[in-house]
Amino acid sequence: MSEATPITELNVSDISKPEVVKNLAAEIDLSKAIIVDAHLLKTYRACEMKFWWFEEQHVIAKGKAAAPGFGIAMHSGIEWFRRSKMDGRPYNDALKIGAGHLIHSYQESMPSEMQQEVMQDDKRSLNNALRIYQGYCEHYEPFGLRFHYIEIPFALYLGQIRIASLSSGIEESKDVVYVGIIDGVLEMRDRLYVNDLKTTSWVVSEQWLEGFRMDQGLCGYTIAARELLGVDTQYALVHGIWVQKEPKTKGAKPLSDYFKTKEIYWSDSQLAQWHRNTLRTAYRIEISRQRNDWQEDWGQNCGAFGGCSYRPLCAATPEFRSRLIDLDYERAVWTPLEDERLQKMSMEAQNL
Ligand code: SF4
User: Fold this and answer.
1) What atom in ligand 1 is closest to the CA of residue 50?
2) pLDDT 10s digits, 75-132
3) Cα–Cα distance between 351 and 319 in angstroms, integer?
4) Which residue, among 89, 85, 181, 69, has the nearest Cα to 129 in the 3D structure?
5) Other CB atoms within 10 Å distance of the CB of residue 284
6) Whose CA is nearest to atom 7 of ligand 1?
7) Which of 261, 146, 133 has its CA nearest to residue 196?
8) What is the pTM of this model?
9) CA distances (Å), 120 to each of 125, 126, 244, 280, in order?
10) Are the C-beta atoms of residues 18 and 157 closer than 8 Å to each other?
């Protein structure tokens, strides 16, 4: 690893590029490193207290959420459709293989109440998932997309932060590793893109798509594809997928309108900005940990998107919170590095 200057202050500008560390587990002590992914970073930036509940207390609301479960199933179907196409299978065979994986993933990921007969009309029913999946495959078939990589888990070394211990005052360096999964790297009209699938029940408008210019995950995946896979691109391609139930009336949006494409370009300086900003958040997370001091939002994030799932806990009197956790929450530990696909990636990285 290079002797890059560790980040010590929030306004530091002297940061080297992210690095490919070929055998990450052997070169750095992962148990002492700060492992971050897009989800953890977004959570911390939205509300430190939310991060504390999730990452430090390992508390999550009971029951599987329907929206992420549906997104996982859709990703799985499209992943296997793409893999089959890459293997040279005809379109109809690839469609069937993808559908089989979608059904299997749906049964594993969705809350059980979504799988009962009575829910079959819902926008997140299995039938509707298959309808949208097929519409997606049909929509993008004429684009002639050529896939170079599909579903690549990665662990990218971002550098070090340096923090003085509160108790001893002695400065300590900490490695920062960024992990995630790249949905795909594809070629379209002679240009390479890092591709990301985004399912949403919001209307897929231009304004919604514009938001991805500042997407923590997408920019990070682009950097990871460049550094780890050697993909020479600064472009990302969002495939927005609208999750809407089948309309019963004439004049409703046709299925082909459920899918929108957004091309995003990042300059070298913007990619460097992402890197610096990510290290700064890692630094702040570490400071919060050391001080065990977590800012509560008391604002927009408490009420956004139907309300933060921790709002009942934050709103309860501190004495009542542990009782509430026993009743309505469960314990789960977010271990992105233990994901078996990430383990596989660290094996692949040794061969780069
Ligand atoms: S309810 Fe508000 S303060 Fe509490 S974790 Fe959620 S966003 Fe943060």
Assistant:
1) 5
2) 999 999 999 999 999 999 999 999 999 999 998 888 776 666 546 558 889 999 999 9
3) 53
4) 69
5) 16
6) 302
7) 261
8) 0.86
9) 5, 7, 13, 46
10) yes
